[in-house]
Amino acid sequence: MDIRPLSDDYAVSPQIAPTDVAAIAEAGYTTVVCNRPDGEIPTELHANAIRAAAEAAGLKFVLNPVVGGAISIDNVTVQADAMMNSTGPVLAYCASGNRSSIVWALALAGKRPTDDLIAIPARHGYGLEPFRATINQLAQA
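Predicted structure:
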């Protein structure tokens, strides 16, 4: 498991397994957000398997599957709600952490400078520059 913090209260990770959840809880995360559609992964990694492990560990679980190249405003809204309503730090995961960083940046549009929303994920290898215009547009909404 490779947790990559984007802020004090939000981190992203490539795909996790049910066996990773105990370490996630021990690390202080209180909410796990799945940004990966089940159709991309084997059954043992489907959201319901992660949900069961997360809830057994006392964590909140949020399902918000993000399809690459088709991120919706609903994805952004669900991610923002998960972040806002968490009682502690959030760990979001997808295939690499990229989609989880994109929806984080879009959810924070207008709340943090666009340059930061692009530069912070870049430290972990995530290229959000193509989303600059969308971040700026959401910041104006």
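Summary: Residues 11 and 91 are 5 Å apart (CA to CA).
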